[in-house]
Amino acid sequence: MGSIDDHSFSAPPEVVSAHGLLFDFDGTIIDSTPAIVKHWHKQGNLIGVDPNVILATSHGRRSIDVFKMYDPSKANWEYISHEESLIPKEFGHDAVEIPGARKLLETLEDVNAPWAVVTSGTRGLVNGWLEVLNLAHPRTMVVAEDVENGKPDPTCYLLGRQRLRLPDTAEMLVVEDAPAGVQAGKAAGFKVIGLTTTHTLEQVKGAGADWIVRDLTSLKLKGFQDGKVEIVISDALVN
Fold this sequence. Notes:
By secondary structure, the protein is an alpha/beta fold. It folds into 2 domains: 10-31 and 95-237, Rossmann fold, CATH 3.40.50; 33-94, Putative phosphatase, domain 2 (DNA polymerase, domain 1, Orthogonal Bundle), CATH 1.10.150. 38% of the residues lie in helices and 19% in strands. A 6-stranded parallel beta sheet has the order 6-5-2-7-8-9, covered by helices on one side. A 3-stranded antiparallel beta sheet has the order 1-11-10, covered by helices on one side. The protein has a two-stranded antiparallel ribbon with strand order 3-4. α8 (179-187) packs parallel to α9 (201-207). The protein is globular and about 50 Å long. The mean pLDDT is 95.
């Protein structure tokens, strides 16, 4: 997405290192946009709100925060967890993996590198999609229910580092597609790789991403040694 042509995504390979990687989920590891659109059409019709109004502000945000705006009576985890757990079951054919996701996650798992999913989705939603798409299951996750405030609040990413049992001084690399998530990663003090999978280039750049790539095919694991994960970033946006 975005208005800059493909030739601008031609930066030479760059090796970056971090003590661990923190991935957003939807839009970063998978793309379930058609399923989420159907979900919010269903919810909008139930609560009497134009689904397009909801969809204009919902991506990258927790459902509980969306419902607080449009129908506070449904802004509770019992309702939201149940409804989100149905999405992969009802609309499972409407999601695909982001190009490069499967290979990158499998290589991280192969060397036992520290990585986690930090998402605005509920646990049932994430686990459902991982099963449908048969992707590597993270041993560490931070989900919507785990934090008081969602992205762009940085708490979720700081909690991700903590759950990986890394010290407060550990350098982390965040991979995100949504501006709110990019802002959360930066507010946590981490470097952020932004993907243009769901938002325009201008939106991702404006959120403050340190590197911008089209998808996860631009990220390759170079190695994991001495407590540092080395990632090669190729074909990033030329600044």
